[in-house]
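call fold(seq) -> tokens
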Amino acid sequence: MHDLVILGGGPGGYAAALYAHNFGLTVALVSDERPGGTCLIRGCIPAKQWLQIAEVFTTVRKASDFGVMTSEPELDWSAALARKQQTVEGLLKGLAGLLKQRKVEVVMGRGRLDGPRTVVVDDQRLEAKNVIVATGSFARSLPGYEIDGVRIVTSDHALDWPARPERVAIIGGGVIGCEFASLLADLGSEVHVLELFPQIIPGGDADAVQVLERELSRRGVTFHLGVSVGPPEVGASSVRVPFGSESVEVDSVLMAVGRGPNTENAGLETAPGLEMERGFVKVDTNTMQTGAAGVYAVGDVVAGTPQLAHVGFAEAISAVTHIATGKAAPVDYRAIPRVTYTHPEFAEVGLTEAQAKENGLDVEVHSHAMTGVGRAIIVGQNRGTVKVTNVKGGPIVGASIVGPQAGELIHELMYAVGWEAYPTEAAAFIHAHPTLSEAVGETLLSATGRSLH
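ret:
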């Protein structure tokens, strides 16, 4: 009998297994592949390695802007692919070693619930006092777009393309679509992004998204917004994608229309009281417990929470804390950073201006462009902006950044949102000069009503 059996080896699952060590719980982690999940094997980590490769390629190509003379760079795709895999393998081995060190029993195979406190893996039955469902997600497609791994692919396939595609249509202009658009355009591909909504990153702050769209367009991405696609015409060497009265012919179509929960055939119906919503698992977000006694869920399978690896980590900590202590340790979903690793990066935290107004808040917004920020000029990336939204006379409730290292800079504003800081409080701290973070400081000063530059 284990204290805890975890169904799924992705970020939510392995984080729960590792954190349980703090309470001396006996843990079994069930996974149908090496622990690491989508994020580590075919998501966050390999995608960001490709984006780093694209950034290095672009930096070398533009080296003459800094007085460094080089020949025109060429990308060795096979070497870049090997670099991506080396990064993934290194992290997978590190995780395996950490799980072993923490005495987590890793059970390989496809598991499923057989009642609320039993997990079946092939012919093996694992009894547990508690179970965490962390089975992750899969890449969705659209009717008529049958995934063949060559002409019509998902991000799973695109991370292992054997060669750079010359022409790509990306269906979906969300985070995944924009990241692939950014890296492919930087590496020289012709890229078309087709998005049903009138803006990329649907739900993102409209002002910040507009800046990102403009910068990606400068880098060669062609956007077709507010369009729906028709059935593809798949040929021997190309695909034609119709949208409205137009169409585009490409070598490959990348489906980036979101991710669905991996809950089918997981035996969740055998846990009395466990409720589902469109395939997602409903939980009490104070504890991550489902309606079934002793059954918890974390990560991409949870209904209504963001499908982000760091959210999975946080939900795992919340679930394990409740299992071990009986005390609630809820995730603060208000202050979760959301990062799109495009070039330039796009990051947000808290409410957008529109969301704040929809919630009935009387807000004011303040922005500061990267244009005159010394460090941004030095690194040659001074196109972007910082935007802060705060309640009039009250705390900061949201922020967005477009620009270099936005994914790192957003964490300062994460604390401001999480701690409900007033602009006058946050602006009182001094930023080193010259740094990119000065753009945040300038925006906060503006929010006090006394700007500097």
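The longest strand covers residues 124-133.
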